[in-house]
Amino acid sequence: MNRSLARHLRPLLFLLCLCGTVAQAATVDVLYPQVREFFPAADRFGALEGDPPAAAVWRGQRLLGYVFQTFDVIRIPAYSGKPINTLVGLDTEGRIVGLRIVHHEEPILAVGISEKELRAFIEQYVGKSAHDSIVVGAPREGHVNVDTISGATITVMVENATLNRAARAVAEARGLKPGAEAVKLPPAAALAPPAKPAVAKPVSKQAAPAPATEEPIWAAVWRQKTFQIAVLGAALLLLTAVLVFQDWLAKHPKLLLYVRDGYLAFTLFFIGWYTLAQLSVVNVLTFVHSIMHGFQWESFLIDPMLFILWSFVAVTILLWGRGVYCGWLCPYGALQELTQQVARRFNVPQYEFPEVVHERLWAVKYVILIVLFGVSLQSLTQSHVLAEVEPFKTTFAMRFQREWPFVLYAVGFVAVSAFNRKFFCKYLCPLGAALAIVGRYRIFDWLRRRKECGKPCQICHNECEVRCIRPTGEINVNECHYCLDCQVTYWNSQKCPPLVDMRRRRERAPRAREMVRGMEEHLGPSGLDPTDDKDPPGCAGCERRCD
């Protein structure tokens, strides 16, 4: 019986020993060896425990500080829709002595900005107190400022808020403040194993609420970008006026030309290069995933320019289709169109694909969108990498300061647009494909057509430079960029055949009436009466023959 009992107890004893070993080994320096760099003088690290979870750091019997990971304290969704997990070390006075990003899924960092730049950003926090109010960007009275990373505004704002709130929470919970004395460990406790295994307590997936006195992250960003918001708001009001009064503008083609070219230049330089507000299919994928995994307004409000643009685009897609954004508000599209206009000024020859090839190429962008969406279901990060099929990040966020294959790719499509108007937009843009799918449910159809369009008139079909007008006269709104060129022709009495006929009839009518009046004056009132055989009195001695 003793042998049987021993045989059954042996596995249990083995498991108990194994659990004891894990508990002893699962200290924060085992899980994250980087913390030894935060406290070089430390000879012992504790486990992540307590509320909020943090690990004590010791040198002999002297407490040096605490180490924690922000993921255990607060989770604020960043640009990718997921939080950034950062390892932080605090000394006994609440000063930050070290930081290291453990995990992130930010697309701008995965394919654009280097990890070195991100490390340089968080290293600015070393030496600052957990009780400081740290802001990113321009200095503000009563705050400590750190420099931002150009092209990663959302990421750095979220990381700043995460570090601020998490460090303050741990410092207040552990009593870490300036002037605090180091704590000594009783000798008996020095040899005791950790009371709990190094497993942090679960926290809610929702972002922890900010303190009552601390404003939301997005509110601070909106306040900092008041000028940009005001300018963009005014520009969108102007575009709305263009759409509402498009018939009147189409009747004044020179004014429309100036308005459109000026707006494209504004879109390129202000929206694209100044505010870095180029929309992307990455935004679409992130939005879809947020719907699937817990939507949070703060994730989208944190970038006011993108939020305002996407709100405006959402409304205009349902009202007029994709063309309003693609034709007026897309910076890369504006760059291609302005390039094409310059090329035409220098008589650069234009090349167009045959109609059958052109229509088949439309499908390519939809295939790209489907592939990106499918990959995002498995890995959102990987889909963001593949979304580099859009040259937007290279052109605007990175301003062509990147490895030469990316620059060549982005510049190449701009060069191609000199020969074929908006080649990338027509055939390859996954964002345009996503907008076109939603645009199929538009409410209005304000682009006017006549019964003669396509039957037999082919003027608009031949002049449409994005080739969205079919030979039969219908406009394919899924591919229309709302340039309004066809509307200018629609109202042009010198070009549109039905209007030309009407104009000629109007012009002939006064001349006909003048001729009749002249004959009446020459022949007299009865001269035109076919029943009167007498010669009109005006014919006496007249050499003119009226018959």
Structure explained in plain terms:
With 547 residues, the protein is of the alpha+beta class. The protein has 26 helices and 7 strands. The strands form 2 sheets. The chain has a 5-stranded antiparallel sheet with strand order 1-2-3-4-5. It has a two-stranded parallel sheet with strand order 6-7. The longest helix has 27 residues, at 497-523.
Sum up the structure in keywords:
alpha+beta; about 550 residues; five-stranded antiparallel β-sheet; two-stranded parallel sheet; 2 domains
Record the SSE blueprint:
Elements: H1 2-25, H2 28-31, H3 35-38, E1 44-45, E2 55-59, E3 62-69, E4 85-91, E5 96-103, H4 107-111, H5 115-122, E6 134-136, E7 144-146, H6 153-174, H7 187-190, H8 217-224, H9 226-244, H10 246-250, H11 253-274, H12 281-293, H13 297-301, H14 304-320, H15 323-329, H16 331-345, H17 355-361, H18 363-378, H19 380-386, H20 392-397, H21 404-416, H22 423-427, H23 430-439, H24 459-463, H25 485-490, H26 497-523
Parallel strand pairs: 6-7
Antiparallel strand pairs: 1-2, 2-3, 3-4, 4-5
Helix pairs in contact: 9-14, 11-16, 14-23, 18-19, 18-23
Overall average pLDDT: 83
Estimate the helix proportion, in percent: 40-55%
Tell me the span between the first and last alpha carbons.
143 Å
Number of domains: 2
Q: Please identify the structural class as seen in this structure.
A: alpha+beta
Reading side by side through the largest sheet, how are the strands ordered? 1-2-3-4-5
The whole-angstrom Rg is 36 Å
Query: Unreliable stretches, pLDDT < 50, 5 or more residues?
Result: 18-25, 185-212
Strand content: 5-15%
The total of beta strands comes to 7
Number of helices: 26
Principal-axis shape: elongated
Largest sheet: 5 strands, antiparallel
